[in-house]
Specification:
Elements: E1 4-6, H1 12-15, H2 22-36, E2 40-42, E3 48-49, E4 61-63, H3 83-95, E5 99-104, E6 114-118, E7 123-128, H4 167-184, E8 188-191, H5 199-207, E9 210-212, E10 215-217, E11 220-223, H6 229-240, E12 248-250, H7 252-263, H8 270-274, H9 278-281, E13 286-289, H10 306-313, E14 319-323, H11 324-329, H12 341-351, E15 356-361, E16 365-370, E17 379-384, E18 391-396, E19 403-411, E20 421-422, E21 428-433, E22 437-443
Parallel strand pairs: 1-2, 1-14, 2-5, 5-8, 8-11, 11-12, 12-13, 13-14
Antiparallel strand pairs: 3-4, 6-7, 9-10, 15-16, 16-17, 17-22, 18-21, 19-20, 19-22
Helix pairs in contact: 2-3, 5-6, 7-10
Length: 444
């Protein structure tokens, strides 16, 4: 499946002193990201935003077809750059075999040009949109409450929500998706705030028969449904019930367990196995992650030992997503080292294939085996949650008379290279990890 990187964080152009130059910044990093083993880039919303209080991250869409070409909302380029620079980024990514994922904000709009009185409520709202692209013009009928539906599933702030049951709106969203895939060159979508509208919109976008080079193309899709496992799985079931191109979901429940692993004293590793997560229920349609742009408020980011969380998602099933700020700004990549994200991405791409088997589990020690599949021969992963000493256990693996060497490891207190291990004729061997650390073993 590969490894995706979320190629932005909140207010990244300002924090990194790259306002209107973010596309160029990503573009220059693509060769090294591809070399490290990443296979996809998730970009922030690429359209022109309302920018009501200065440049924004794009989650307040105004003109879906202005990718940095029209002089409106305070500038010609978006906060990230121009259309030409975006085109170059996508071209460079494709040259390096990386897919590019567009962030689709389909629930709400902002920055309308005029207020209108909605005759259903007799109240005025800013719902008249006449963007300079001349495409997807909107008026009060495009938004809730509309003549087409009386119930809005969930609102996002005070921005007007698009009424997807309006045939015009529904058709325009499909046209937008087609344009992004077939003309702009995106390879898939991240769907923002899908709680706000019916799942059939996502089904339709995923199912559409896109054409590329004379052949049908199926885009990747992952939805942001921020909830517990039961509710998320219910939504995924609705979206994929009659869907030949299933949409994935971000695993927020797993992320909360990983935060507890890193930040909560006395966390039991049994919770990673027995806790309710999307990964546990259906790993084939799950995107795992450690951090994202929405987890920036006080108390929500992971504060300690974050590499423990990355070691988990980059050795297990699911489609792992790495956060740009962790990789670059917090220097967790640790390039040319066995102790950071780069080594874990390499382990994921070379070894992390096949089914997952828990070989040993206690409150403080977890040993897992990936059985291998095709050109990925499998691995042994050891996670030690105790902070005082190295710990290991004898386990029964699937490999007899095999020798193993460490390919990635980290410990809060001891970064010494772990000792190579071996199994006997019955496949039994002993595997260790350092204090408050992990080791990924691969077979010679």
């Amino acid at each position: 499946m590969g490894v995706m990187i979320q190629s932005f964080y909140w207010d990244c152009p300002r924090e990194d002193h790259k306002e209107f130059q973010w596309w160029n910044y990503i573009n220059q990093e693509i060769p090294l990201l591809a070399k490290a083993g990443f296979t996809a880039l998730w970009l922030p919303p690429v359209h022109k935003a309302a920018n009501l209080f200065g440049p924004s991250m794009g989650y307040d869409p105004y003109d879906y077809y202005d990718l940095g070409e029209f002089d409106q909302k305070g500038s010609v380029p978006t906060w990230f750059g121009s259309r030409q620079e975006l085109n170059q980024l996508i071209e460079t990514a494709h040259q390096h075999k990386l897919r590019v994922v567009a962030d689709m904000v389909l629930n709400h709009n902002s920055g309308a040009d005029e207020p209108e009185v909605n005759p259903i409520t007799n109240q005025a709202r800013w719902t008249k949109f006449n963007p300079k692209s001349g495409k997807f013009l909107r008026n009060w009928e495009s938004f809730h409450p509309s003549m087409y539906e009386s119930w809005d599933q969930m609102t996002f702030g005070d921005m007007p929500d698009l009424s997807h049951r309006n045939p015009y709106v529904y058709g325009e969203l499909l046209k937008l998706a087609r344009w992004l895939i077939e003309e702009v060159g995106f390879d898939g979508f991240r769907y923002d705030f899908v709680k706000g509208f019916a799942a059939n919109t996502i089904t339709a976008i995923q199912e559409y028969r896109y054409m590329r080079n004379g052949q049908y193309y199926k885009p990747f899709g992952v939805a942001e449904y921020w909830d517990n496992a039961t509710n998320t799985l219910h939504w995924v079931g609705e979206a994929n019930e009659a869907n030949a191109n299933p949409v994935d979901a971000f695993d927020f429940p797993l992320r909360e367990l990983l935060k507890s692993l890193c930040d909560s004293y006395g966390f039991s590793l049994k919770s990673l196995v027995y806790g309710e997560t999307i990964l546990k229920a259906q790993p084939q349609t799950t995107v795992t992650f450690v951090e994202n742009h929405d987890l920036r408020d006080e108390g929500r980011p992971i504060a300690n030992d974050k590499l423990l969380a990355y070691s988990y998602i980059l050795t297990h099933e699911g489609y792992p997503c790495v956060f740009w700020k962790d990789y670059f700004n917090y220097n967790l990549a640790l390039r040319n080292s066995p102790n950071g994200i780069d080594a874990l991405v390499n382990a994921h791409e070379k070894f992390a294939g096949g089914d997952t088997s828990v070989l040993y589990l206690s409150d403080d020690l977890y040993i897992m085996q990936r059985g291998g599949y095709e050109n990925q021969p499998g691995l042994i992963y050891v996670l030690n949650n105790r902070g005082e000493d190295w710990r290991g256990e004898w386990v029964n693996t699937k490999w007899s008379n095999a020798s193993f060497y460490p390919v990635a490891w980290w410990s809060r207190n001891d970064l010494a290279r772990p000792t190579e291990q071996s199994t006997n004729t019955e496949g039994r061997g002993q595997f260790f990890a350092g204090p408050r650390g992990y080791v990924v073993y691969a077979k010679h």
